[in-house]
Amino acid sequence: MPELSRxxxxxxxxxxxxxxxxxxxxxxxxxxxxxxxxxxxxxxxRLPPRATxxxxxxxxxxxxxxxxxxxxxxxxxTLQRIDPLP
Length: 86
Known about the structure:
- By secondary structure, the chain is an alpha+beta fold.
- The chain has one domain (3-73).
- Helix content is 29%, strand content 29%.
- It contains 2 helices and 5 strands; from the N terminus they run E-E-E-E-E-H-H.
- It has helices spanning 49-61, 63-74; strands at 3-7, 10-13, 23-28, 31-36, 42-45.
- A hairpin with a 5-residue loop joins strand 4 and strand 5 (42-45).
- It is globular, with a radius of gyration of 12 Å.
């Protein structure tokens, strides 16, 4: 699964040709969470509250990038990395 971004120990990934709705996977340690890339609703899993907040802050700043990455993944194209939180 390609890595889109990495910051503060959090890894953001997206699968190629994955099922709808458009979403991404966030990992922090042994915890995982799946987030809708359009609404930022948590679809599955959980991260600690601070990590969840950082993921949501990052995703809100990169909604267009996430939608582009989703389409690239659906088309089996190389995914471009997305800038991490500073």
